[in-house]
Task: structure prediction
Amino acid sequence: MRKLVSLLVFSVLAQAFGVCSSAAQDVRIKDIAKPQGVTDNQLVGYGIVTGLQGTGDSTSVLFTSKTIQNVLQSFGLTVNTNDVRTRNVAAVIVTAKLPPFAHSGDNVDVVVSSMGDATTLQGGTLVLTELRGPNNLVYATAQGPISVGGFSVGTQSAAAGQNGISQNFTAVGRIPNGAVIARDMITNLTPDQSGGFNYVLTEPDYNTAARLAQVINQKFPGSAHALDAETIHVTLPPKYANDTVGFLAETGDLTVNAGQTAKVVVNERTGTVVMGGDIKLAPVAVAHGNLTIQIATTNQVVPPGPFTNAQSRTQTNTTIQATQSGQKLIYISGAATLAQVVRALNTIGVSPRDLISIVQALRQAGSLQAEVQII
Result:
């Protein structure tokens, strides 16, 4: 079954779409800012996933067959390509983020993504994989069972003439704490030539940058000034000239009145939508209709004709039925709050995946005054 969502979004009032409140709250500096240069580092590796229930790569994926050969040879077994006929193995790319100040023995999460034609990684186990940084050095090794956050049953290929059902994208999964760090990550906290460093906001905002510098100056007069909406330069006080960590520990617990930006976070892989409470809409009308298409495949044995010696053959018959539910037109008044928006969308029976399309269309139409972030 495939579900197509027909969506029509249009503006109904000719007015400025600038209705958006920005709530403010007191937060700790260390929760909204960090020293410049203190950041995660990307790691990547190539590996294989085993233990799949016939849902791995086919024999047409040559690099998977070669990888299986290499793995078996490392265990003293010699095989050739013709000997590798398994569908329980899939070639994958493994990625991870190496946090700053990481030390050997720490654990981090990894993301495992299929490279070949495997239909799902459900139930699979990642074999020991080296994770390398941009300098080609091995910083971690990953291994363990994969969690896909969904399920897949049957074959999803229409060409195969089989039916199946799935939830979320099961060709990608995670291994919580699946990587063990093998090399220390050295992060430099040495003050610059001016005897200080830069604080960098995780969410650039002019008001927040100015307030952060003001809060630090109240504690250490003349120590900080904002360079732009994201960067605040801080000069270490004399008593902290050789103790950057001590200064960061003391200033990190200072609170600042930080503004919030209206944001909608969308995860298309899992169908998750998270909306901030201060999001508002300009006047808008939404027409929503669900179109459902059902495709049924049946096989019928056709006997040969009376004047031939041919064998009976199988004929595949496909029927297509399309139905469409009744449409509703929902009017959302200007400056609607999040609760009103959710209530209106629930009225027309919007699922999370439908909501993703609606949010994107509202943003394009100019009614949704918020940043839409797709992860």
